[in-house]
Fold this sequence. Notes:
The structure is a homodimer. By secondary structure, chain A is of the alpha/beta class. Chain A has one domain: 3-Layer(aba) Sandwich (Rossmann fold), CATH 3.40.50. Chain A contains eight helices and seven strands, in the order H-E-H-E-H-E-H-E-E-H-H-E-H-E-H. Chain A has a seven-stranded parallel sheet with strand order 3-2-4-1-5-6-7, with helices on both faces. In chain A, helix 1 packs parallel to helix 4. Chain A is globular. Chain A starts with a helix and ends with a helix. At the A-B interface, helix 5 of A face helix 5 of B. The structure holds guanosine-5'-triphosphate (GTP) (2 copies), magnesium ion (2 copies) and zinc ion (2 copies).
Amino acid sequence: xxxxxxxxxxxxxxxxxxxxxxxxxxxxxxxxxxxxxxxxxxxxxxxxxxxxxxxxxxxxxxxxxxxxxxxxxxxxxxxxxxxxxxxxxxxxxxxxxxxxxxxxxxxxxxxxxxxxxxxxxxxxxxxxxxxxxxxxxxxxxxxxxxxxxxxxxxxxxxxxxxxxxxxxxxxxxxxxxxxxxxxxxxxxxxxxxxxxxxxxxxxxxxxxxxx
Amino acid sequence: xxxxxxxxxxxxxxxxxxxxxxxxxxxxxxxxxxxxxxxxxxxxxxxxxxxxxxxxxxxxxxxxxxxxxxxxxxxxxxxxxxxxxxxxxxxxxxxxxxxxxxxxxxxxxxxxxxxxxxxxxxxxxxxxxxxxxxxxxxxxxxxxxxxxxxxxxxxxxxxxxxxxxxxxxxxxxxxxxxxxxxxxxxxxxxxxxxxxxxxxxxxxxxxxxxx
Lengths: 211, 211
Ligand SMILES: Nc1nc2c(ncn2[C@@H]2O[C@H](COP(=O)(O)OP(=O)(O)OP(=O)(O)O)[C@@H](O)[C@H]2O)c(=O)[nH]1
Ligand SMILES: Nc1nc2c(ncn2[C@@H]2O[C@H](COP(=O)(O)OP(=O)(O)OP(=O)(O)O)[C@@H](O)[C@H]2O)c(=O)[nH]1
Ligand SMILES: [Mg+2]
Ligand SMILES: [Mg+2]
Ligand SMILES: [Zn+2]
Ligand SMILES: [Zn+2]
């Protein structure tokens, strides 16, 4: 239990520090391939017009996602976990050193692709955002409940694929209601851009609320 | 390191025991929603004609997958990990107690949906089978390399969705070659049944080779 406690303490330190700097940090969590990096690719150009944004990119191996995001000319700090299946607050604290924190408003953390462990770790964020993509199936909120309980928002991504799959939205919303009755959902497609405005809106409002 | 060593010892005991009983055990690993349970739903009716089959179902929460497989009248033993992100050999040993091991030829273990940790744990299986689905993207072998290094086979599932995604098979095979040059791949769709015969064939051959 000591590891989790030490992580919580460090996370609180990180959040206090970010609060002093008036920076809002979002922890984006999903299975591998749900579309976290693609969402950031779609969002960064829009957000850059309103905020000073940076990204902490968490991956087991490679710089692939970090390189994809470098194209958007925002500061990107990569953490290769070399096998660990989730990010912890100690590595976030180190990654933050790469940024000029007096010049930022918003930080995204793209966590390691994993629907289980990242939900257990506070990394100093102001909000966890869960992402689920349509092809994964409608049963995940009940099967992997902790993430959906901890998250402030769920993004249902790849809704352009709804017509090609057997995803049952009624079951998805019913299950989500049982796991976390207050959880808001944004239906989104990084292909058609549906829902992107609602996501940018949510970020704007949540940032203001956290200041 | 002790935990991993203790797990390895127990796994070897489990495998030795299965060998005495002439039982072949496959450990099926993928991200959440790649199609593990659906593949078993498609395969069990065919395999039951050749072999005496059982399933160990690993899930964080719920009996949903176990109930889906109960319909196929094979013995199913459920392990709810209550938060652990992978199965270990101690829980497999316990799950095996639910079966009459003198009446079995083949056991499938459906591991917890997670592309990271299950690859590190030997649970006494004769082969790890990695599953990746087309919507997750073509970059996973290099981004989550351990599973593709440990696996004896990779199933590329949901190939019926290839035409609706930007999955690049050339990149996928190039990356897989770099991670594990000997790894065979079966392209499959649980919707169109393409590749199901090749999968049944592979199981048949591997079982014979392991006896
Ligand atoms: N059809 C469709 N495909 C999408 C959408 N969003 C992302 N994709 C595709 O999904 C695949 C995976 O997207 P990524 O953004 O790399 O996923 P990720 O969550 O960052 O993956 P990891 O970092 O490996 O966990 C890619 O092939 C994307 O093109 C969407 O809204 N619709
Ligand atoms: N289009 C298409 N959909 C598929 C295929 N195989 C599975 N699916 C769908 O993918 C979703 C998830 O399938 P499951 O079999 O539940 O996935 P799983 O790997 O067992 O998921 P977890 O147990 O939660 O890790 C379901 O909606 C299935 O109908 C396929 O070959 N093609
Ligand atoms: Mg990514
Ligand atoms: Mg399943
Ligand atoms: Zn983990
Ligand atoms: Zn793990």
